[in-house]
Automatic annotation (TrEMBL):
Its EC number is 4.2.1.41. This is Probable 5-dehydro-4-deoxyglucarate dehydratase. Coiled coil: none annotated. Pathway: Carbohydrate acid metabolism; D-glucarate degradation; 2,5-dioxopentanoate from D-glucarate: step 2/2. It comes from Streptomyces lutosisoli. Keywords: Lyase. Transmembrane segments: none annotated. It comes from the Bacteria. Belongs to the DapA family.
Length: 313
């Protein structure tokens, strides 16, 4: 167990970042026992951190009470072995409320997701994230996606803000990200963390590594941790032959399958966890379950991923 600051614990990519799904029972309520087991397995498999109740964890579908309970269980399951980062989102007042609930539940940091519904200007976005960061003692990672897309100048101001330690990109505009990285490096002394937060981030791992971004979220780690770990090790060792074999044989086909349905970035991952023997339940609406044929294709892909490992990739 360590009490080192969050940035220091995340700065060395010792493994993929684990975004657990949230488990529901047959009646649709949160199943904390199954969730605890899911988090425990991920930590013991080699996750570098647990990002609880974020996008893959259906933050949007959880009540504040369920959110707090899940974060607390994730902290208990991690037992200090890796940091636990919790999601926070919606409008500023609710984001602050979730941030404080996460702090009370023992989280080490926050992933601040986009504000709800509105498309705000840069000045309003900056104020929003600064207010969230000021609300607790937790370090904050700002998540760029959907209606929260930043100019390099705004990210410089975020990096200057107390409590904001990093920036996660879920947009995939590499030109923008290169300009952001360059601007912050030029204007703000010290280390600022960057994360590839695209769905199935492994697919763009080589491109992001090219601009110096090696931290990434891995949804695949939820259901095929050995495959995710093998890819992570190869990417960081610059063993691009192994990286490309896993991309061609597993990750690209998985992304093609994920593109077959809206919300599959969550529901297909949850189906994968069930296929591997842990009944985490279905997704909550407005998400929907994958088609039966797509689940069968996922099962075949998982088998293919593990076959690649046996072939010695």
């Amino acid at each position: 167990m360590t009490s080192a600051p969050l940035a220091a614990r995340l700065s060395i990519p010792s493994g993929p970042l684990f975004f657990p799904v949230t488990a529901y029972g047959p009646d649709g309520s949160v199943d904390l026992d199954v969730y605890r087991e899911h988090v425990r397995r991920g930590v013991e498999a080699g996750a570098a951190a647990v990002f609880a109740c974020c996008g893959t964890g259906e933050f949007h579908a959880l009540t504040p009470e369920e959110f707090e309970a899940c974060v607390r269980v994730a902290v208990e399951a991690a037992a200090g072995r890796v940091p636990v980062v919790a999601g926070a989102g919606y409008g500023t007042a609710l984001a602050v409320r979730y941030a404080r609930l996460a702090e009370g539940a023992g989280a080490d940091g926050l992933l601040a997701m986009p504000p709800y519904l509105v498309v705000a200007g840069q000045e309003g976005l900056l104020r929003h994230y600064r207010e969230v960061a000021a609300a607790t003692s937790l370090d904050v990672i700002v998540y760029q996606r959907d209606n929260a897309v930043f100019t390099p100048e705004t990210v410089v101001e975020l990096a200057r803000s107390e409590g904001i330690i990093g920036f996660k990109d879920g947009v995939g505009d590499l030109d923008l990200m290169q300009r952001i990285v360059s601007a912050v490096r030029s204007e703000v002394p010290g280390d600022f963390l960057y994360f590839n937060g695209l769905p199935t981030a492994e697919l763009t791992g080589l491109a992001y590594r090219g601009i110096g971004i090696t931290l990434y979220s891995s949804a695949v780690f939820c259901f095929a941790p050995e495959v995710a770990l093998a890819f992570h090790a190869a990417l960081n060792a610059e063993d691009d032959d192994v990286v490309n074999r896993l991309l061609d044989g597993f990750y690209r086909p998985f992304v093609d399958l994920r593109a077959q349905g809206r919300g599959y970035a969550v529901s297909l991952v949850k189906a994968g966890v069930r296929l591997r023997g842990l009944d985490v339940g279905e997704v909550r609406p407005p998400l929907h379950e994958p088609a039966e044929d797509h689940v069968k294709q996922l099962a075949q892909l998982i088998e293919r991923g593990y076959a690649l490992l046996e072939e010695g990739v």
